[in-house]
Amino acid sequence: MEKRKYRRVSFHAMATVMADHVSISGLVDNLSMKGMFLKTEARLPGDGILEISIVLSGESSLLSIKTKGCAVRQTDEGIAVEFKEMDLDSFVHLRNVVALNSDDADAFYEEYYHAIMPK
């Protein structure tokens, strides 16, 4: 059984990935603090840095997670993306989305704490 460092949650939202002036849209299938899987039939033109925008709809505003990353795998179902950098606001939104969609938010926060506070 594979042991992941970061909890992955089922989360569905529209996202856009921009690579080499090509924009690809799809539906986020799952999400973690380190990456996501984007369901799309489109393929990336290369293996460069991706600009990623995940749309989060709220009660009173339209929020998004903006990050940069790279494709680690492309399949017939979509693209697995590893996040490389993001601003603080996007990081906080991502942390909250993963915690709120986790089946055990306390366990998520424990993992999160140990990941950011090395021994």
Topology:
Layout: E1 9-10, E2 14-19, E3 22-31, E4 35-39, E5 50-57, E6 62-74, E7 78-86, H1 88-101, H2 105-116
Antiparallel strand pairs: 1-3, 2-3, 2-5, 3-4, 4-7, 5-6, 6-7
Helix pairs in contact: 1-2
Quick overview:
The protein has helices at 88-101, 105-116; strands spanning 9-10, 14-19, 22-31, 35-39, 50-57, 62-74, 78-86.
Walk me through this protein's architecture:
With 119 residues, this protein is an alpha+beta fold. It has a single domain, classed as predicted glycosyltransferase like domains (Thrombin, subunit H, Beta Barrel). It is 22% helix and 45% strand. The protein is built from two helices and seven strands, in the order βββββββαα. It has helices at 88-101, 105-116, and strands at 9-10, 14-19, 22-31, 35-39, 50-57, 62-74, 78-86. Strands 2-3-4-7-6-5 form a six-stranded antiparallel barrel. The two termini are 25 Å apart.
The counted number of beta strands is 7
The largest beta-sheet arranges its strands as 2-3-4-7-6-5
Q: Tell me the number of helical segments per DSSP (H or I, 4 or more residues long).
A: 2
Instruction: Give the CATH architecture.
Output: Beta Barrel
Beta content comes to 35-45%
**What is the CATH fold-level name?**
Thrombin, subunit H
Which CATH top level class fits?
A: Mainly Beta
Fraction of helical residues: 10-25%
CATH superfamily: predicted glycosyltransferase like domains
> Which residues sit in consecutive blocks of at least 5 with pLDDT less than 50?
none
